[in-house]
Amino acid sequence: MDRHTSEQRRRNMQAVKNKDTKIELKLRKELWNRGLRYRKNDKTVFGHPDLVFKGKKVAVFCDSEFWHGYDWENRKNDFKSNQDFWIPKIERNIQRNLEVNKKLKSEGWTVLRFWGNDIKKNTAKCADKIEKAVKGMKPLKSIDLFAGIGGIRMGFDNAFGKNIDTVFVSEWDKFAQVTYTANFKDNFEIAGDITKIEENEIPEFDICLAGFPCQAFSLAGKRMGFDDDYKGLCRGTLFQDVVRICEHHKPKVIFCENVKGLTIHDKGRTFKVITKSFEQIGYTVYYKILNSKDFGVPQNRERIYIVCFRNDIDASSFEFPKPTDDTKTISDILEDAPISPRYYLSDVYMDTLRSHKARHEAKGNGFGYEIRPLDGIAGTIVCGGMGRERNLIIDSRPHSMIPETHIKGEINKEDIRKMTPREWARLQGFPDSFKLTLADTHLYKQFGNSVTVNVIEAIANKIKEVLDNA
């Protein structure tokens, strides 16, 4: 006989409904370990699913056998007392489940329901179904502007996997195009000068990737206020093309990378125009300076990263990634010996470098070549100036002393060499599978101009978390 009063039954049922049951906790832990991020009991979604992947429109319910009527036709007669209360109550629950399923599906949701015992007996199998539903959705579309050799794209591809599809690429440098096409197999040609491409010629996309050049905006004599036309000040710059394309297509996310000095460029005016322009076209802007040496590569490279979410996307949970690995040293990225003698400097050139450095030191300047210890990290690799000479190393492993190219003098006997293009690729987080098809001169320029893939991937993972739950 049921001895509870109606008020006691109501409190008990409410407690069960709100409690984090063991089976729910078990399933949530399994999903979390797989890198799947969700919202719990999201009351903004009809039916208040137990788990919600809002960006993917996947709703998960963990149904207890008792409250939701498992094998109901055979088990409803198991009630030996108070059948007039329990049978109608549970049948209402069953009917409501059907109504919730129908409404959510009509709104484009994928609805998954699991019995508690199924979760308990085979958590992994239940998680497999959820993972398939979440990751099997239509991939997000991205465009790659000022693409270089594809470093930003590679980071996003690593983070999103099969859930991202590049639909448009723009890069004007012909040699960069060669390296890009050698490593990314697209069914379209790389577009050239973005300033000559109309925004309606670009396919629809969800994510804009843009490593645009740093340029000054004409703000002389202007007293800028909150309501001023910031995006209008971009005219004549390549950044303007990012704004006009994104204002037309309204992607979910805009991602930009630039030099650390962007924040103080032109006394901070440049960066103000950039952030205010994005806000003006409907985006919430996040930015942070991160150092590559904190993300698994031995390179001291500070860059600013800008992430913009469209205003209708709840990005309040977004945060930039914390450092993941600062233990790597130059010795971790060295190619196997023997290294070609063409990378070892001549004794005549070493004398020139020493004289050059001495002249600048006499003037109080810090310019000149630098030898990096193998148990240390590289300085920022750059494409111009003395980018290679400021990251020399001493590599005493066996190597040929016979020059492969015409040099003045002979190969130095101190084992001083520049790093190879492959080692520069590793400093930027590019895998060894990345094809290097051009002459060294072009490769040094390309990797010096590129981004650190590890950092991009870490940020992209954080962006993915927001989109999966937006």
Question: Can you put this structure into words, describing what you see?
Answer:
The chain has 470 residues and is of the alpha/beta class. The protein folds into three domains: 6-135, Endonuclease, Chain A, CATH 3.40.960; 140-326 and 452-469, Rossmann fold (3-Layer(aba) Sandwich), CATH 3.40.50; 336-419, no CATH class. It is built from 15 helices and twelve strands. It has helices at residues 6-18, 22-33, 65-68, 72-75, 83-106, 116-121, 123-135, 151-160, 174-183, 239-249, 269-280, 347-362, 421-427, 440-449, 453-469; strands at 39-40, 51-53, 58-63, 110-115, 140-145, 164-169, 207-210, 253-259, 283-291, 302-310, 392-394, 416-418. The strands form three sheets. A six-stranded mixed beta sheet has the order 6-5-7-8-10-9, with helices on both faces. Strands 1-2-3-4 form a four-stranded mixed beta sheet, with helices on both faces. Strand 7, helix 10 and strand 8 form a beta-alpha-beta unit. Helix 2 crosses helix 7 (123-135). It is elongated and about 100 Å long. 35% of the residues are buried.
